[in-house]
Amino acid sequence: MNALIDTHCHLDAGEFDRDRDAAFARARAAGVATQVVPAVTRANFADVAATCERYPGCLPAWGLHPIYIPVHRDDHLAALRAQIAAWRPVAVGEIGLDLFVPELDFATQEKFYLEQLKIARDYDLPVLLHCRRANDQILKHLRRIPVRGGIAHAFNGSDQQAEAFIKLGFKLGFGGAFTWERASNLRRLARELPLEAIVLETDSPDIPPRWVGKGRNEPAELARIAGALAELRGLSVEEVAKATTANALDVLQLPPLSKGEENPPPEHSR
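User: That's the sequence. What structure does it adopt?
Assistant: Structure tokens below.
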């Protein structure tokens, strides 16, 4: 099978502290050649950097997540610029808006989102967007402050919103959520949207697929997620892996995978 790219994975999270080396090895053995590791707060930059320095194929994205609005400060935006200048990431992220958590101040979310779009524009970088129940608001500001595309992470919107993201140069992230039978609209989107618009992600340790249940998600599950998408679309898993990897390489402006990365050696040989 073609190598896979997990376009959204928090391998630095505390949930992996007890077995991070093993989780990474399982991902490589499952064919996951690349993992994009997004930052979520200023304090989190160091953990993401350490993770990406330690594990081959882990690539950083720097950003300030809307869920953590209570801890963000204005000077963290300057720190974000400095971090990007010091270590150019694959994207600015995870950034965006969240209308699911009612206690998050929306005006403050908007301020940090807009400022980070400007940073992405200034550095000519794509963005990783957190869009939970906020697709229209996200899109409104993208039209005002255009950036070099990116990924609408954990996309779960309408056909019209999907089309709008695609027209703006975005790919749509699909992971464990669509594997649940009750997610009827999401499964329909995963089945019907153009394959060239889809990238795969786990959002590890969150959004576990159906077979994990309420347990911890991890990047190795991307192989089964690719298989679930292939089954849903009536394609081979090789077709899905080849297409979604090409989509990720394109939107994140990454070079083609080397031969060794395309076929990672099995876990026991490491």
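Residues 4-269 form a domain with the TIM Barrel fold (CATH 3.20.20.140).
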